[in-house]
Write a structure and sequence with these properties.
heterodimer; A: 538 residues; mainly alpha; two-stranded antiparallel sheet; 6 strands; 45% helix; B: 1071 residues; mainly beta
Chain lengths: 538, 1071
Amino acid sequence: MVFATSCELDLQQDPNAVNEDNAIPDFVLNSIQLEYQELFNEIGDDGMQLTRMINQGSAQYEGAYTPTRTNVYWTGAYSTVLADIALLEPLAEAANFQRHLGIAKTIKAMVLMHLVDSYGDVPLSETLQGASNFNPKVDSGESVYAAALEALNQADAHFAATSSAGTPNDYFYARNYGKWRKLVNTLKLRYFLNTRLVKAAESKAGIDALITANNFLQVGDDFIWRFGTTRADPDSRHPRFADQYTSGGGDYQSTFYMWHLTEAKGFDDPRARYYFYRQVTANPTNSEEIECIVQIAPPQYLVANFVYCLPGTRGYWGRDHLDPDGIPPDGLKRTAWGVFPAGGRFDNNSAAPVNNPSLGSQGAGIHPIMLAAYVDFMLAESALFLGTAGSPKDLMLSGIRKHMEYVRSWSLSTSQGSVISGFTADAVYATSVTNYLNFVGNQYDAAPGPGLPSKMYVIGREYWLSLYGNGVESYNLYRRTGEPSIMQPGLEENPGKFPRSFFYPLNYLTTNTNAVQKADQSVQVFWDNNPAGNAWVD
Amino acid sequence: MRKALLLVVALFTMTLSYEVSAQQRVITGKVISEEDGLGLPGATVLVKGTTVGSTTDLDGNYSINVPAGSNVLIFSFVGLEAAEESIGNRSVVNVTLAIDASQLSEVVVTAIGIEREKKALGYGVTSVGSEQLENRPEQDVARVLQGKVPGVNITSTNGMSGSGTNMIIRGYSSATGSNQPLFVVDGVPFNTSTNNTNGFTTGGATTSSRFLDIDPNNIESMSVLKGLSATVLYGDQGRNGVILITTKSGATKRKAAEVTINQSVFSNTAASLPTYGQEYGNGFQQGNGNFFSNFGGRMDIGSTVRHPYAISSVASIREAFPQFWVDGVVGGTPVDYEYRAYEDPSTAFFRTGMVSNTSIQVAGGSDRTGYSASFGYTDDEGFTPGNEMQKYNFGLGINSAISDKLSVNSSFTFAITDLQSPPVNASFGSGPSGGIPSVFAHVLYTPRTVDLAGLPFENPIDKSSVYYRGGNDIVNPNWLVKNYVNTSDVQRFFNSTSLNYDVNDNFSVTYRLGLDTYTETQEARYNKGGPSSSLATQSGYYRTINLKNTIWNQDLIINWKKEFSEKFGMSALIGGNSRYDYFEQVGVASQGQLAFGLFRHSNFTNSSSNDAYSGTGMNRTQEEQRMGVYANVTLDYSNYLFLNLAARNDWTSTVEPENRRILYPGASVSFIPTTAFNWNSSTLNDLKVRLAYGTSAGFPPPYSTRNILTQSARAFDVGGAVTQTHEVANRLGNPDLRPELQQELEFGLEGVMFNNKLRFDFSMYEKNTSDLITDSPIDPATGFSFTQKNIGKLRTRGIEFQATVTPVSTASGFRWESTINWSMYRSVVMELAPGLDQVVISGFTNLGNFAIPGEPFNVIKGIGFERDEQTGQPVILSNGLQKPTADLVILGDPNPRWNGSWINSFSYKGFTLNAMIEYRHKGDVFSNTVTATLARGVTKDPVVDRELTFIMPGVKEDGTPNDIQITASNYFFGGYQGAADEPNIFDGSMIRLRELSLGYELPTGFMAKTPFKRASIALSGSNLWFLALNFPPNMNFDVDVLGTGVGNGLGFDFVTGPSSRRFGGTVTLTF
């Protein structure tokens, strides 16, 4: 009576959770897809900041991209997406769930490429072994890239397999596996383009073959993550909308990027009103709200006549590159995310505060992970440097057109549709697109010329202007081509070393005996053999 | 007090047998205690040279048959000096027993309720009497103990009524396991968890600790067992020290019937608010504006600004207040708003709370049965509006000798603790973490030109919060305290029942059953309409969590003692223990409030079993089972050499079967050289040397050994298509997890000198933990991000010293007694696993307490200043501010170098004056309160002419001295709230007047004319004055704060809130 028996000590099984024996492959695949879009957002955020698509609020690169900062890449990639893929693979193989495997391996390939693009050499062959290996060694970036290509080949085979069981939940393509195969081809194009500097011949052959197969993403095949409007349990809205359209504040848009879309060409980019929502349509005059209007631009801005503080006079209100200042009371004044891609408001000059989650398309935005338009920009670069088929200029113009049309058509499909069509008729938009294409086409022909250092500058700049919401591709583009060059410098005269790759994260360095930190952020990844240092990327 | 400690002893001696012989006479009389002049129940009366004896009854009366030829009686009572009296031809012999002057004869309660004279103990034990606990302004027993026990470090999370308290004895012995001591009340474990369902960044920074349910006025005595040798018999539960509490209900001492009534009233104010400036107002860069900051223009030039509500960016605010437009024309001209110094938050927001405590004690009994009943009621109103705690404590104790051999002792406690408080969440100087409300987040740096008291805080149209910022992006503190409420309602039942059977004089058996069970209902009730970056907060949030915690504890103990000879004796004990803990939590969280002010889940659009703030599920259960057998043998030789051997073997359910069993041995020696070598003199009255060794272990929390999957039933929802997920959990289950092992070696010296004018107790110890169970981060490339592993070693060394001097004690009754407590510890991380450079103990991965091999445990790491290699000066960037380091650096050691307190007591003719001063030496504190106030320019600092420019000390990147002139705004705001954490680190040295009281006991002669036996009155205060020596002076900062909440973190203040200052009086009546 007094003392318990020993079986009462058998209380090791957590009664609050399911365990691995009960894993349901469909649910695991859901995790993989959801986790991937979160990783894309984390990595893309830094890419957008580094390429001046949105503001970075530290004075120097070292302070901005500390080893701690990219902890989330490492956990997001390894112990989250890749670990769940490792959980799924044997279960899916046992059940002949070919399509599950195809989706998982496509995502795996993307994750591996993101890791190499971010760090260079990363662990792969010794990873995901739990207690059997606490200290996985790094593999060369090149071999990890090769593993990604292999994963894409396998994925393609899984999508093509004739016998397959199971019905996966496919957030991207609703089980249209033909579109997945197009995505696989497009990702291979990206693979060959990224490696073109170090393996020109292989890249050319690879891209030639892909062009021959002609099975890239086309209009209507865009690989995007779609958010919803559910605010809670779970919050399924675009994260940038959720940050900004609750009480205002949030991200500062980049002065430089807004300048390019509104002032640089002498006319507005047709997409500007979709990208940005102005809470006020006139520039601030009160230095309590924006300090830089009473300050003089730093010398590095003045010598090259960079836009400083405010682009134009119409209330496009953001921040210059590497502006570390505190936050004045401008949360309901600064320019906010628009309808594309964050699911906010279309700018029809309504100029109202965004502290309301019912505004715009209520967060039902997208992550533009890989768009049909991007294919053309990549092919343009390939044509220019590798001599693959096609005219660089035509491909570029086709990319711009596809993107502009996509921005409009997607935006019209949201709950902002009537607001948009009420403000800009289809024909008006089409005309502005045509005018834009003519202008850029002429610029391309004129390059190199005043302010246009190269033809690749024009391609790169236009690709960059189409990459709003996708910092992953813009950061790779910037390192691979150095374009768009003539980027707005940091406010600090010496911003430190621009990250050609990131420091290894702290959660890897402090736990793994085989981890060795790099000397600094100027270390280049294997496919980047461009000149070292900041000069390449300024 | 000393008498009060005598529990079972009295019972044993009650049943002494005696012989009756033919030729005898009957002697009667009364044994009186000198201490209080009352009869002494349970004292032993022996006829010298015989075995004839008797004991006194409840009133101290005795009757004894003295055989012919005997003429001397020996009167004794544990803890009192024995007396011999010749009978002569008297038939009535009254005797008064005096307190044994030797401190070493003091009786203390040790593990498993064993009472020992202090001289027999080979380890350090500190006793705290009821006089040090009763009628204190604080109702939290842990806070009452602050500074009174050397080696015990107690930190309040903040000064709010009912906020949690952290207690660490003898430094740290576990990195990620709990370091909180075990509370044992009336012999059975008492749960003292801090049920913070949310972490310090998600709203749970100052959650109550459940020793709050103990009524300090119902404590008869307390023993603090600090070392492992003292706590061996508790097994792993005793690894962090044990606080043994005997309640008045649980005391077995029988008392004469009497009723005691206490009534106290105290005021409660915020002690550590900054001194606000009177020169400059809201703005930045000397321009007036609606900033968080106060770096605007001068306030004394009669300027005005447009009314902030009329120029709000939010249309509904502009429109709701026509009174702020000229002639009431909305959209016309805003009225002028005086740009002057308004009432500051110390009075415009904070209040003086009233704390009232009523306590009634009834005690009495017959010669075989005693009882004690108590009732306590406390209404503790905080200095923060909306903060109030009400406590009801009912206690009932019965002890009865059923027969000569069998006795029963049972104590019941029922406690109701109802707390309500505005939420407290970590803030960093520009609002609370994650948009989760915190009452202090914005109030301390209210710009001086903002009329906090006078501005409307509620929009008359929809009752939402309105405030001065253009975007209305911060919640008005006055609105917050009216509309955001956290509650905790606890109902707690506690019972300890012991049955004791004396088989014979040398052999007894005790069975003790303990039940500690409570339910706690926690609610968060946040009305909609408060601006927040969290949509859940903004739309209205209602969370209800029901917690249930139960401990069943059983002990069976067999005692045996034997005197082998005059000189050599032995006592032994073997026992078995079973402890079962069950925890259950069920919660619902709703958001999207419909009708304002109504808190029912049905009034919300969305309900979930996941908390919106932490994202975690609120439905869980946890079970834990411990079984142990233990033995203890004490050998004593000639009253000067004592050897104690103890061991416990435990089986625990939280690890896999192969690691489940563990044996903890311990041993201690006590040697009294003064007795052994007859050194006793008036200079050296008594001296004791002790040496002890003890071991313990720490088991992991339940469910750490196996892998689980994380499941989400609602992972994503697009257009109503809800999808589910299964994913690999971040934690790798470790089937090989073993308990962490602790060993401690302790040396001590106790002495009494100068005719008892000086008493001291010195201890030094070294405690080593190996196989530390660590929430160890692992490379995520393994597929998991952390695991619990047995890695690393932690070593703590420390010294404790307590001395009491009586410098003056005059015949006229003036007495001055002075006690010094002093302690220090050094906890050092000796090693971690190979490859593991650091472990985050508390805080954030980029600013927190870390364990780093070779460094003091808990060092603070964060972003520092990049320093010039040549000069060590901070590097200054072209913006005139320090360059932050790219990597984390060690910023400080939050462990105090040492702590001391000095308690003085003066008594004269019924008057008693007590003063307790505390000092803490060093120990770094990271304070965001500084960031939130000094950096924003609202305090009297910086007392400089802000129109001038400033140059930050340091060198430029080229190594030349910095000459970049910056504005006051940039200097102070950028300097304190810039990219680095380093400027927020301050030395935590602090001096404090912890307690001050003046009491007067009415003379008994006077009392004889009243219906009362005794009456006293006292004025007392706590925390009346303090000074943090190296903080900016006008911050008035109090380092008694713990921003990371109760746990292993130390040295952080995330605008966690001010400390409390209390002052008032108590009346005590006994009849």
